[in-house]
Amino acid sequence: MLSLVLIIVASLFFMGIVIRTKSITSGRKGPGIFQPMKDVIRLWKKGAVFSRTTSFIFQIAPSIYFASIIMAILVIPFGQYRGIVSFDGDFVFFAYVLALGKFFSIIGALDTGSSFEGMGASREALYSMLAEPAFFILMGSFALYTGHTSFHEIFTSLHFGSYISYGLGVLATFVLIMIAMIENSRMPVDDPKTHLELTMVHEVMIL
Fold first, then answer.
1. Using CB atoms within 10 A as the burial measure, which of 12, 31, 58, 63 is most buried?
2. pLDDT at residue 159, as a whole number
3. CB-based contact 204:119 (threshold 8 Å)
């Protein structure tokens, strides 16, 4: 339960910290750390507008995407404590519940009937296709090394002291950073502030 609370709280501040840091480094005043939270509150107060070309898929896609993220968070352990949902092979469940949310995000974009949205959806699917095997190779390596297939058991059994463990640690750091860049639409994979259609990935689907 603690991991769920910490991740949600961190997600509320993370974007604000990123924006604030970029503003300071570029010599601008910029918005405050709490600006993204204010934007979320403002958007919640607005009504929904749906195109007549969309179906119910477009309407349920955001809810399913949000639910998939919450379900994935429930699997993540915190320190020596198990996740709220913990079982053998839970890292497979973690990957595919996120893939379910990504799938509905993609078909929600395609449901608009716009070729522009379709272009963004195809790019999103491409990067997800590249990130998913990397995650499974990484977790499979940890599972073979520790003899466990649960997040909690893997993390509690993983001890650094050999060349293999250090190699896996370096590989894990690199893979997780790259996956984070892909999923969060960050450079060099994507630029959330770009206005050039040829370089947009995730931003295309939400325009």
1. 58
2. 78
3. yes
- Tell me the three state secondary structure of residue 57: helix
Closest CA to 190 of 113, 110, 127, 100: 127
* Rounded (5°) CA angle 34-37-41: 140
CB 93 within 8 A of CB 136: no
| Beta-ladder partners of 157 | none
Q: Encode 104-148 in three state secondary structure.
A: HHHHHHHCCCCHHHHHHHHHHHHHHHHHHHHHHHHHHHHHHHHCC
**Domains of the chain by residue range:** 54-205
- Indicate the pTM of the whole model: 0.79
Tokens read off for 165: 């463990």
